[in-house]
Amino acid sequence: MADPYSTLGVSRGADEAAIKSAYRKLAKELHPDKNKDNPKASEKFAEVTRAYDLLSDKDKRAKFDRGEIDADGNPAHPFGFGGGGGQGFGGERYTYTRGGAGPDMSDFDFGNGGADFGDIFEGLFGGGRGRPGAGFGGFNARSAPPQRGANVSYRLAVPFVDAATLAPQRITLADGKTIDLKLPAGVENGTQMKLAGKGQQGPGGAGDAMVTIEIGNHAFYQRDGDNVRLDLPISLVEAVKGGKVKVPTVDGAVMLAIPAGARSGQTLRLKGKGFSTKSGGRGDQLVTLMIDLPSDDDALQRFAEEWSDERAIRSQLGV
C-alpha cells in the first residue's frame, strides 16, 4: 500500500480531526454504492480505509512514523535485522565486516575462549553429529505458518432507536459487499463486533473485519445505562386533573396515566421500554413530567389573579 498520509492527502503532522475529515470526504466520494460501474473506485475505497485504519490508531501510527511497521501494518524488519547489526546468540549484539573471501568472524564473541567454529555451526545447523531430524539449535525445524491477511477496521453509525431495539444494520465492506449485522444485547457506544474472515486476504487466509459501533444522539431521548429518559410536556389541566396521554417510546407510542396533582419533575416509569441488557432483558423508559404553561393566555392570567397559594413551598430551601 502507498504511504497512508499521501493516500488520505494529509501531512505527517495532521491531527486526528484532520485525518478523520479527510477520510470521510474520500470515503463519501469513493463509496462502492456511488461507483458501481467503476471497480477502481472500490479498490481506492479499500486503500483509503486501510490508510485511515492505520493513522487513526495512535499506537500503529507511532510505529509507522518510527519505521517499525510498513503501510500495511506489517513489521518493517520481520526477522530483526537492521542496518549495521542485529541480535546475536543469548541476546548479545554482533556486527560483522565482509572481506574479499567471505565474512570476517573475528567480531563474534561466543564466550568460549576460542571454540571450534566448525563444531559450533555443525551443531547449530543440524550437522552429521546431530541427532536425526534435528534442526537449528537441536530442535525440529518447522517453517512458520502462512500469515493471515490484515484485519480491517470499520465504524458503523447506528441510530439511537435502532440500537435500543436491536434493529438489524447493513454495512458495506471495502470490497463493495454488504452484510446485515445483528446487534448484540447490551450494545453500547464503542461496542466492537468481529466479522471473521472479512478482512484482507493473505497466504494463510483472510483477516477479520472489526466493526466499532457508534450510537447516534436523539432529538428527545437520552440514554441512562439500560434506561431511556424522556422529558414529557403536559398541560396545567393534565397536571391538575390527571388522565391518560400519548407518549413516544423506542417501540412506538403508548398511553401513560398521569396522576391527578402531578408536579413538574415527577418521574414515571414505563417497564421494558429501554435498551436491551446483556442478560437478555430490557431497561425501562423514565418519563419526567414538565408542566408547560402558555405565555399569553388571558383566562390563565385571570385565574392567577383570583387564586392564591399560601403554602411555604420554598421553606425546605431555607428561604
Q: What name does CATH use for the topology of the domain at 221-306? A: HSP40/DNAj peptide-binding domain
Q: Distance between the terminal alpha carbons, to the nearest Å?
A: 71 Å
- Low-pLDDT segments, ≥5 res: 80-139
Shape: elongated
Rounded to the nearest angstrom, the radius of gyration is: 34 Å
| CATH hierarchy: architecture of the domain at 221-306 | Sandwich
Main β-sheet, in a few words? 4 strands, mixed
Looking across the biggest beta sheet, what order are the strands in?
A: 10-11-15-14
SS element count, helices: 8
CATH class of the domain at 221-306: Mainly Beta
The CATH H-level homologous superfamily of the domain at 221-306: Urease metallochaperone UreE, N-terminal domain
The chain-level structural class is alpha+beta
What is the string of helix and strand elements? HHHHEEEEHEHEEEEEEHEEEEH
Percent of residues in beta strands: 15-25%
Average pLDDT taken over every residue? 81
Number of strands: 15
Helix content percent band: 10-25%
Write the layout of secondary structure elements.
Blueprint: H1 4-8, H2 16-30, H3 39-55, H4 58-65, E1 86-87, E2 93-94, E3 97-98, E4 103-104, H5 117-124, E5 152-158, H6 160-165, E6 169-172, E7 178-181, E8 192-195, E9 209-215, E10 221-224, E11 227-234, H7 236-241, E12 243-247, E13 254-258, E14 267-270, E15 285-291, H8 298-306
Helix pairs in contact: 2-3
